[in-house]
Amino acid sequence: MINNQRLLAFTSITLLLLIFTSCRTARFLNEDQALVDHVDIHGVKPELKETTSLYISNEIKVNSRVNLFIYNLFNTKDGKYKKRNIRNVGEAPHLLDSGLVDLSATQIKRFLFTKGYFGASVTPEIAVKKKRATIHFNVTQGDPYYMSKITYNFADPIVADLYKKEVKPATVIKEGDQYDAVNLITEREKLYMAMRDHGYFDYIRQYMRVAVDSMSKKNQLNLEVQVENPSDSTKHQAYTIDNIFVTIRNFGTAKKEIKQTFDSINKIHFTDETNNFRLKPLTRYMYIKSGNPYNLTKENLSYDRLYEMNGFRSVKIHYQKTDSNKLDAFYEMVPRPLMGNQIEGEFTLSSGMSGFNIGNTFSHRNIFGGAELLEVKLRYGILFDPRLSGSISNKIFNNDIQIGVNLIVPRMMTPFPVSNNAQYGLAKTTFSTSLQIFNQDATYSNRYFINTLNYSWHESANKFHSFTPIVLEYRQGRLNDNFAQNLIDQGYLLYVRSNNREYFGLGSQYAFTYNAKKLTKKENFNYFKGSVDLSGNILDLVSRVVKFDRTADGEKKVLGVPYLQYAKTELDYRLYRNLGGNRQFVFRINPGIAIPYGNNSTLMIFEKSFYGGGMNGMRAWQARTLGPGSYNRESVSEDLRLNLRNLDQLGEIKIEGNAEYRFRILNSVLGAKMNGATFVDFGNVWRLKENELNPGGEFKFDKFLSQIAIGTGFGLRFDSDYFIIRLDAGLKVKDPQFSGSDQWVLKHFFDSKEFKDQYYQTHRPDRYNFIQYNFGIGLPF
């Protein structure tokens, strides 16, 4: 109770200090200045109020108290603002400016006019007291105007017919509706796209005009939609594509023999100054073709897909008229550097251990002449534990070596013909192979080899599919002999059998993603990803026809090694809500289940199991240190606690959720935007069945809610537009390894030394950390 009161008092004092400091801003101003303290709009319908407020000048809107506090902290001295302010730190006070008030009133009136309120008036009212200004915009909206009659006047009957077929069925301007200028602009844009998509290369938006007559009945309008002809013609001219010229430029590289070919069937003249590309893979995504009418949508689609092939840094399409109704199309492309190399590294520090990861990625962007991407990745990671005795080499807790090769082909490569329709995105075929060698001191070693064939494609703008028909894997896991014997002596034989083993896997995977393209947008939307991973079923069917050898435990073997059989699925649902400006709320729920059965019916292997904690999940816990269930490592002997770390806290069931509020702190910090986030994470992992290795770790419907862990925290995001650097500090609130009210560990935050010392005595060498720091690239979800 005392600790809760301390926490409440600390939080209250901090908030009061922040408010008090920002309120003192007025004393830093000159006598003729006033801080804008309150701005409001009166008389506007609720559905228009938020949009109307956007037309108030930002310079006379109320400051963010946090940003104003930061500005004052660095820019005041002796009760006055410094003559030379530090720019881009916080937010300068917004001062009353009558000129900006009048300008904002005019902008609000103009906006209301576009919404049909032709008689609207806006009267600003300003009150100043003790250097603080209150601004009220008093609006008299009046009654809106409605479109009583809409007539059409087309100079060219062909355009009139196209409008009737392509635009009119889905028109946004209808008789009886309230006047809205935005709808008129939308209608003009629809006609523009329809004309350009039907060959009218010279058509421009200004040919369509709308005449408005408000002289009829009260609050009623007559509209006349007019589409004029070109000034030098009696009709609009449609154009057909004639010849295609494709040129790949060679800038900044060694000069080579220029390759020139001519495709007489498709009338394509191909010139490759680099002598590295083949024409056929490129023509799949060149949608402007000879014999077809000019089409703006297909031109934009060509731009998108040629860029998406990732082989070109510049793509330009232009046209040249050859006679009265013919166009020659010219594609000019500048390739990206053929080969590249990227080195990445990071330093890790957590739970008293430190280490580093370093990786190197070599890429070849056009290995077979069709913008195919070859990637060779090397990665090495090492973690040191200072609690281990001996020299520095003896303090290595674990090390991890990974080697991978990916070949990405920008089309579907199948043994049977399939459509490579790339209307919404590029279809890709990916061949990949990787090898991992992992060793943990005196505990465990793992050799993992996997080969996959993956197809990915877009069903629509927001629906994305990934199908991996072949997942071929081999794994050899070995427990240290002394460690394995120690486990057996303490009754953990099942754990030894499940991890001290070889296996062979043959399976398939599928994933569906909805709205992934919206993840970086500030708008309201839902995101969903679902995945299914199956293995061993084909081999199981074959085993019913062909007799397989078996191990001493009865497992069927392929090529002398037992094969896996399991089913795994995971869902990820997120709700994104834009709260205006740079403020956003995100809620996420992420459940999953993995079921071993048939030939592998004990525990899921390490690589396929779920774990809790980490920078993208339960951020108050280090990865693989949460759960399963209410499992407490005090039940394990001291020597096993050290060696089992990151191996014993896994599960076959996962339920995880997060809620995060994101907001802007500073607009510019070293060339990047600094955003903040407060978050709450909740969840855990569980075992499917009771297991002697994890007492209390099994999932039970009447207990799992009480075993949910809760963490909270604050984070900073440095957004440079190209990537986001993320720093999060997660604080444990509820820890299910304890029981009853002791789970609410936050109450021990202010007497943490005593709590941590007591925990260490019963859990050594494990130490308890209330706060977990996370460093990452990109948003957590």
TrEMBL record:
Principal location class: membrane
List the keywords (alphabetical): Cell outer membrane, Membrane, Signal, Transmembrane
| Cellular localization per UniProt | Membrane
Chaperone: present as a keyword of the record?
no
| Gene3D superfamilies cross-referenced by the UniProt entry | membrane protein fhac (3.10.20.310), membrane protein fhac: a member of the omp85/tpsb transporter family (2.40.160.50)
Give residue ranges for domain POTRA: 94-142
Q: Which domain of life is it from?
A: Bacteria
Record flagged with keyword Transmembrane = yes
Q: Which residues form the Bacterial surface antigen (D15) domain?
A: 476-740
Protein name, as recorded: BamA/TamA family outer membrane protein
- Species, as recorded: Sphingobacterium kitahiroshimense
